[in-house]
Design brief:
Length: 360
């Protein structure tokens, strides 16, 4: 950079271009007031009103965040003629540069993934969705530290649709989550899925869903191919991060615990239960007396025939005697006449008198 280069915001002298995207370029710059190197993200003059709103939102969000894995924001301007963001300059390269020579060691991938998952957990805890996690947005400093950068398409989770057209798909197709591709709600799980694809690319050395529109559709019909040969903690983490259903994906915090080895097992979130149906109002019915059941008495076993017949005969004889001797009421029965002096000799005559009395 030269001393005669125009100053940005009357303070920052631009130098070489470090990179760029669809709406802005990033330059190495010198802060002439503090005499330190910084990174300046400058929006192009063709940026429309929607782009300026996104930029202002990005600046306000990043200015309020502070984490060792985030690029520090020093200053910004959202003027119509000057839109820029002044950030900490990270000397080094990107994660995309690190994978150009082939697959990375699985242990290194798990280590970087754990650090990035912790950054996402912090960001999500502040209601921010990055929406564009990809290798070129992961900076690797010369000291080996990883930083998550470029929140140019991030937004507050509770401000969905306020800055973007509802029909616009924001993000890089190669690393989009299934819900982004299908036009569904995009939240924290989309960032976790994108980080999972980034780590899978690092460990395999190939892009899982390359290409344009075909790549977007591919993840809807087949799951990512995760190697069996990688360490268990990395494989478990990728499987849980790359679940097709966002409700079944682990959180960024859980991903960090797995990849960093703070835990060996996590439970994916369970979708909330369906709401209970409203209580059913019983219909009015005519009153009916309750049905009563009568107990069934056990039937006694039949006694032997001979005792029953004998009993019946005794009952008949007793009944006959009662009828015969029951007083008539009209006349008082008299005693049989005395036949003679008591003794055996009088017995025949007494029996004859008794018979005549019975016959009437």
């Amino acid at each position: 950079m030269t001393d005669d280069a125009p100053l940005l915001g009357a303070r920052y002298r631009l130098g070489s271009r470090l990179g760029g995207g669809g709406m802005a370029d990033v330059h190495r710059a010198m802060d002439t007031r503090l005499q330190r190197l910084v990174a300046a993200k400058v929006f192009r003059s063709a940026t429309d009103e929607l782009g300026r709103k996104r930029f202002a939102e990005e600046a306000r969000i990043l200015a309020g965040l502070s984490h060792p894995g985030l690029v520090t924001v020093h200053d910004f301007s959202a003027d119509e003629d000057e839109l820029f963001l002044i950030m900490e300059l990270i000397e080094g390269g990107t994660l995309a540069d690190a994978t150009e020579s082939g697959p990375m060691r699985p242990e290194d991938v798990a280590d970087i993934g754990g650090k990035l998952a912790d950054v996402l957990a912090y960001v999500h805890g502040n209601d921010v969705v990055h929406r564009d996690v990809k290798p070129t947005n992961v900076l690797i400093g010369n000291d080996g530290r990883a930083y998550l950068a470029d929140f140019g398409v991030s937004r507050l989770a509770d401000a969905a649709g306020r800055l973007t057209d509802s029909r616009m798909v924001v993000g890089t197709t190669t690393y989009m989550a299934p819900e982004q591709v299908s036009g569904g709600d995009v939240g924290f799980p989309a960032d976790v899925y994108a980080l999972g694809l980034v780590l899978l690319e690092c460990v395999t050395g190939r892009v899982e869903y390359p290409g344009g529109p075909d790549a977007a559709v591919a993840r809807l019909v087949r799951p990512p191919q995760i190697p069996f040969s990688i360490p268990a903690r990395l494989r478990r983490g990728l499987l849980a991060m790359l679940a097709a259903d966002p409700a079944r994906r682990i959180t960024a915090e859980q991903a960090g615990d797995l990849l960093n080895g703070r835990t060996t097992e996590v439970i994916a979130p369970v979708p909330p239960p369906l709401p209970a149906p409203p209580p059913r109002i019983p219909q009015q019915r005519a009153h009916r007396p309750p049905t009563q059941s009568m107990p069934i008495q056990p039937q006694p076993s039949h006694p032997p025939l001979a005792p029953v017949a004998a009993g019946l005969l005794v009952v008949v004889i007793l009944a006959a005697l009662i009828v015969a001797f029951w007083p008539d009421g009209s006349e008082t029965p008299g005693l049989p006449p005395v036949s003679g002096s008591p003794g055996v000799d009088r017995l025949p005559e007494d029996l004859a008198n008794l018979e005549r009395l019975v016959r009437g």
